[in-house]
Amino acid sequence: MDHQRRAELLDAVVDYTVEHGFSELSWRPVAAALGVSATTLVHHFGTKEQMLETILGRLRERMFVATSDTAGEQPDLATAARAVWTRTSDPRQWPEFRLFFAVYGRALQAPHQFTDFLDHVVADWMSALVDAQGPNTDPATATRTATLVIATIRGLLLDLLATGDQARVQDTAESFLATLEQSADTGGA
Predict the structure, then answer these.
(1) Fewer CB in a 10 Å sphere around the end CB: N or C, the chain?
(2) pTM of the model
């Protein structure tokens, strides 16, 4: 199997899914949009469920890498949280995050079909945000703080996507991020 061709197809399939959603995801429309045969997609991705898992993995990877690039190497918690918010609240990213929340909801209803997604949806960010608090932070405190950051940012993003009220949600996000920055300035986590 040509890994570069698979990677190119995967990125195109992810872009298609972000634009069209995953509820109607099927071989023929995706293949037609990409100018390939359905057989080509099956060859590269296996079953429809395997393709969806691969799409979700790539989407998660894109989100994580883009945010990590914005935050820089070994950011503190406030810098990491601000990088996450800056990327997720960017209107250009909204289709990606609409897909994210659609999958999240479906995964909660059918956890056996989305095991990999559910295993990583919190764990990836949890690990990065715990690490961002430094080695001297009590592990239980670091975990609680990371959980609060994840829940707050995801809640704000869900509110933003649902209402489109950028001014109100951005003001709230700035207030939250300021508390993290103040905590960092005073030596807390």
Answers:
(1) N
(2) 0.81
